[in-house]
UniProtKB/TrEMBL annotation:
<protein>
    <submittedName>
        <fullName>GNAT family N-acetyltransferase</fullName>
    </submittedName>
</protein>
<dbReference type="InterPro" id="IPR000182">
    <property type="entry name" value="GNAT_dom"/>
</dbReference>
<dbReference type="Pfam" id="PF13302">
    <property type="entry name" value="Acetyltransf_3"/>
</dbReference>
<feature type="domain" description="N-acetyltransferase">
    <location>
        <begin position="8"/>
        <end position="167"/>
    </location>
</feature>
<dbReference type="InterPro" id="IPR051531">
    <property type="entry name" value="N-acetyltransferase"/>
</dbReference>
<dbReference type="InterPro" id="IPR016181">
    <property type="entry name" value="Acyl_CoA_acyltransferase"/>
</dbReference>
């Protein structure tokens, strides 16, 4: 499966994606607001989890690559939230991109393709996104996508240790109808 935009392809994972994903995940700036993947083994497990999610649900955080060069740029996609929270069950959208891609609109372009897939192919009623309060860049992407801040639904991430600045998460939502209305 491949989702294509003018500049990007979102596709399933291959073994040759493991090294560039691990290299990207070793960049402290990339991981500043994301739970760490401190070893190559942890990175490989994350990829294996995405592959299994794709097999079970038909979507995951896909590889984002340049259509012009085939270069690995990161990962963007959809994922079923698998922890208990007041807003679950839910499907989230997220992105993790190499620092060299920042400031080029790659996250927004890739996320729009994932939202199209979620609303048009999966017929989802809503897609959520969340980020650490200090992650202004991701929140800016969420707003560009038309997502609406839902302060009442902010939460403490149950998989992040207490005391971590990543534990508190701010919530954004996008309803299918809002996406349809904005796409007209």
């Amino acid at each position: 499966m491949i989702l294509a935009t003018d500049r990007l392809a979102l596709r399933e994972w291959r073994d040759d994606d493991r090294a560039p994903f691990a290299a990207m995940s070793a960049d402290p700036e990339v991981m500043k607001f994301i739970r760490a993947l401190p070893t190559r083994e942890a990175c490989d497990q994350w990829i294996d989890f995405q592959i299994a999610h794709q097999a079970e649900h038909g979507f995951c955080f896909w590889v984002v690559e340049s259509r012009a060069t085939g270069a690995f740029l990161g990962a963007t996609g959809l994922f079923r939230v698998f922890f208990d929270a007041p807003f679950t069950p839910a499907v989230e959208i997220g992105w993790r991109l190499a620092r060299a891609t920042w400031g080029q609109g790659i996250a927004t372009e890739a996320a729009r393709a994932a939202l199209d897939f979620g609303f048009d192919k999966l017929n989802l009623d809503q897609i959520v996104a969340y980020a650490a309060p200090a992650n202004a860049a991701s929140q800016k992407v969420m707003r560009k996508l038309g997502m609406i801040r839902d302060e009442v639904s902010d939460f403490d991430h149950p998989r992040v240790e207490e005391g971590s600045p990543l534990r508190r998460q701010v919530m954004y939502r996008l309803a299918r109808q809002a996406w349809v209305d904005a796409s007209r």
